[in-house]
């Protein structure tokens, strides 16, 4: 009779397979990360950006980074809220490690690399990707909803409008609505399967994941989730307003927040790594329409992107190896139990 403390022959055979699979997954994530990073560097021009950042006083740069940390902190709390609502028995520190560590993959195409958080959760809790997928979907949908609400509110309070903001707001709210309607999303998945007739197992898992969204849709979850998201994104919008003021241009708080959120949404909806290209173009164009000179709009755009997108990337890269090592340790502990 085999001891319960010893792995079975079947488990022993599977471990090399798991290690090979993990290495292939990690290699794929690294390739996606490298592709996104190359695109980001090409779009912003690191040398020019570094020169523009050097013009800021140290305390001003610290304020911008601190406001970005406020954004990440509130959204990390929202991730923890969703994790607890899903039924995961994870600590706040654990969820913050996963959330912030996932930023290392923020420049992967479509930000798919951030799904590494699901991989860490599987290692540490034993929950499959199918069970944790709603967490990632709700996080993205909540961002869309919070940003759309901020955009709509800032437009209504701004002295003048932001060109193209209404369609983007409607599109973001529609996407968020669909992503948080379990029956509607399950129906769309079912329709897609009937049209293709292929991959029944994948479509079945996706449909079950969509139905599990029902536990998130109550007001006790959605109201605090939206509040946390709005507070987080508003902090970065306020940072953009401060930056423009420091550069001698004051277009008003609401207009600055509207331009920042619109550009971020527009870039994200393109699916480009980190919204690169689309976000910068939208931000510079909207500032130009408001009469801001190019010698201000271009460096302001570069600086705010460095203190938000690049800062998130650097923060994620610092935390990523710790998250990876801890998840592997927890995975081994689960296997030995």
From TrEMBL:
<feature type="transmembrane region" description="Helical">
    <location>
        <begin position="56"/>
        <end position="74"/>
    </location>
</feature>
<protein>
    <submittedName>
        <fullName>Flippase-like domain-containing protein</fullName>
    </submittedName>
</protein>
<keyword id="KW-1003">Cell membrane</keyword>
<keyword id="KW-0472">Membrane</keyword>
<feature type="transmembrane region" description="Helical">
    <location>
        <begin position="302"/>
        <end position="323"/>
    </location>
</feature>
<feature type="transmembrane region" description="Helical">
    <location>
        <begin position="253"/>
        <end position="272"/>
    </location>
</feature>
<feature type="transmembrane region" description="Helical">
    <location>
        <begin position="213"/>
        <end position="233"/>
    </location>
</feature>
<keyword id="KW-1133">Transmembrane helix</keyword>
<dbReference type="InterPro" id="IPR022791">
    <property type="entry name" value="L-PG_synthase/AglD"/>
</dbReference>
<keyword id="KW-0812">Transmembrane</keyword>
<dbReference type="Pfam" id="PF03706">
    <property type="entry name" value="LPG_synthase_TM"/>
</dbReference>
<feature type="transmembrane region" description="Helical">
    <location>
        <begin position="24"/>
        <end position="44"/>
    </location>
</feature>
<feature type="transmembrane region" description="Helical">
    <location>
        <begin position="144"/>
        <end position="164"/>
    </location>
</feature>
């Amino acid at each position: 009779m085999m001891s319960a403390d010893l792995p079975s022959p079947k488990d022993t055979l599977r471990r090399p397979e798991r290690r090979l699979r993990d290495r292939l997954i990690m290699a794929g994530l690294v390739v996606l990360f490298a592709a996104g990073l190359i695109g980001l560097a090409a779009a912003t021009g690191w040398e020019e950006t570094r020169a523009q950042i050097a013009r800021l006083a140290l305390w001003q740069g610290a304020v911008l980074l601190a406001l970005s940390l406020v954004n990440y902190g509130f959204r990390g709390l929202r991730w923890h809220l969703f994790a607890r609502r899903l039924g995961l028995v994870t600590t706040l520190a654990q969820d913050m490690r996963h959330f912030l560590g996932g930023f290392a993959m923020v420049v992967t195409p479509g930000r798919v690399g951030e799904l590494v958080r699901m991989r860490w959760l599987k290692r540490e809790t034993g929950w499959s990707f199918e069970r944790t997928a709603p967490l990632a979907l709700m996080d993205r949908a909540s961002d869309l909803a919070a940003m759309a609400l901020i955009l709509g509110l800032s437009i209504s309070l701004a002295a003048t409008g932001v060109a193209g903001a209404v369609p983007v707001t409607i599109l973001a709210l529609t996407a968020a609505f669909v992503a948080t309607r379990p029956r509607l999303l399950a129906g769309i998945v079912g329709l897609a399967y009937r049209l293709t007739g292929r991959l029944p197992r994948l479509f079945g898992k996706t449909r079950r994941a969509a139905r599990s969204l029902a536990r998130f849709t109550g007001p006790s979850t959605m109201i605090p989730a939206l509040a946390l998201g709005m507070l987080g994104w508003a902090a970065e919008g306020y940072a953009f307003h401060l930056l423009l003021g420091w550069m001698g241009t004051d277009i008003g708080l609401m207009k600055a927040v509207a331009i920042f959120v619109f550009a971020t949404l527009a870039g994200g909806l393109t699916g480009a790594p980190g919204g690169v290209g689309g976000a910068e173009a939208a931000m510079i164009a909207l500032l130009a329409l408001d009469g801001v000179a190019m010698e201000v709009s271009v460096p302001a755009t570069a600086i705010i992107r460095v203190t938000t997108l690049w800062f998130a990337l650097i923060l994620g890269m610092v935390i990523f190896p710790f998250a990876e090592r801890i998840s592997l340790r927890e995975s081994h502990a689960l296997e030995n139990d």
